[in-house]
């Protein structure tokens, strides 16, 4: 708004505001725009809404909002954006602006719709009536084209199911979700590992490489477990074992002397 200016945007048939906190679109957006922009009773719209609570009025959630020309040229819209100021904390932005843009426009006589109207939806089992955050299965069921990044983090227990649903019902590349979440979250979390397993491929030819495997032994009682797992290797390798103190060295040496052959101590 600052860069283009509130006067310049009056020249557009509609103005869409969205942020980068979501994955998507999961479904074709053309049908969504045609649905709302061809409906004269809809002045502005979004993906999901938030029902009225003690803290907030009913409003469109701000991660995706689209406004018709009649809204954009209105004094209510212009005045709202001219009075917006920066905040350091996101909660301050939510408190001052997310719900207020909807209530301001509704008070000016405009009407809104959403792809997924959550106001009268069942919230049983939900901690809070925020479907975009606490109920991603409903987001997919109602084909809201965007799913929030923080929703994946908050619903790790069902994230593998969400990935399967997205892969089955849409053409959106799930690998993009896995890649992004691996950068902003711990990459070895269980909900991500299911998509990272390497398939077992039978090695047809012996690897023509000299391979060294280094095992540092801190807990000697685990040495046998590691050596057993190494038996699954289908290639030749030299194993180098190190440890951190003389006691572990002696224990490891004693164990290796009983269980293995062709070893040397350095």
Defining key terms:
RgpF; 2 domains; Rhamnan synthesis protein F domain protein; alpha/beta; 266 residues
**Strands, total number:** 9
* Strand portion: 15-25%
Total individual domains = 2
Percent helix range = 25-40%
Query: What structural class do you assign from the helix and strand content?
Result: alpha/beta
- Unreliable stretches covering 5 or more consecutive residues: none
N-to-C CA distance: 70 Å
Oligomer: single chain
Q: List the helices and strands in order.
A: EEHEEEHHHEHHEHHHHEHEH
Task: Describe the main β-sheet briefly.
Answer: 5 strands, mixed
How would you describe the shape?
elongated
Mean pLDDT comes to 92
Number of helices: 12
Radius of gyration: 28 Å
How is this structure best described in words?
- This is Rhamnan synthesis protein F domain protein.
- InterPro entries: RgpF.
- This protein folds into two domains: 6-191, no CATH class; 211-260, no CATH class.
- It has 266 residues and is α/β, with parallel strands linked by helices.
- The longest helix is centred in the middle third of the chain and has 18 residues, at 90-107.
- Strand 8, helix 11 (223-230) and strand 9 (238-243) form a beta-alpha-beta unit.
- It has twelve helices and nine strands.
Write the layout of secondary structure elements.
Elements (H helix, E strand, L loop, with lengths): L13 E5 L3 E2 L5 H9 L6 E7 L8 E2 L3 E5 H4 L2 H8 L7 H18 L4 E5 L14 H4 L1 H6 L5 E2 H6 L4 H11 L4 H11 L5 H4 L18 E6 L5 H8 L7 E6 L2 H14 L7
Parallel strand pairs: 3-6, 8-9
Antiparallel strand pairs: 1-5, 2-7, 3-4, 3-5
């Amino acid at each position: 708004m600052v860069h283009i200016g509130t006067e310049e945007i009056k020249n557009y048939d509609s103005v869409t505001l969205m942020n980068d906190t979501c994955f998507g679109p999961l479904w074709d957006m053309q049908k969504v725009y045609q649905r709302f922009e061809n409906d004269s009773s809809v002045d502005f719209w979004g993906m999901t809404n938030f029902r009225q609570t003690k803290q907030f009025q009913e409003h469109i959630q701000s991660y995706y909002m689209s406004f018709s020309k009649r809204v954009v040229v209105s004094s209510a819209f212009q005045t709202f954006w001219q009075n917006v100021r920066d905040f350091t904390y996101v909660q301050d932005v939510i408190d001052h602006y997310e719900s207020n843009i909807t209530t301001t426009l509704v008070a000016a006589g405009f009407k809104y719709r959403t792809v997924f109207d959550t106001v009268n939806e069942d919230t049983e089992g939900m901690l809070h009536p925020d479907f975009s955050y606490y109920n991603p299965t409903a987001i997919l069921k109602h084909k809201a084209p965007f799913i929030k990044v923080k929703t994946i983090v908050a619903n790790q227990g069902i994230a593998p199911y969400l990935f399967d649903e997205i892969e089955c019902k849409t053409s959106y590349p799930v690998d993009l979700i896995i890649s992004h979440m691996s950068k902003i979250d711990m990459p070895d979390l269980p909900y991500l590992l299911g998509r990272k397993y390497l398939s077992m491929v039978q090695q047809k030819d012996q690897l023509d490489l000299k391979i060294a495997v280094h095992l540092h032994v801190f807990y000697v009682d685990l040495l046998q477990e590691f050596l057993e797992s190494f038996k699954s290797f289908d290639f030749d390798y030299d194993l180098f074992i190190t440890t951190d103190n003389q006691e572990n060295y002696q224990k490891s040496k004693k164990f290796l002397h009983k269980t293995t052959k062709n070893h040397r101590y350095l």
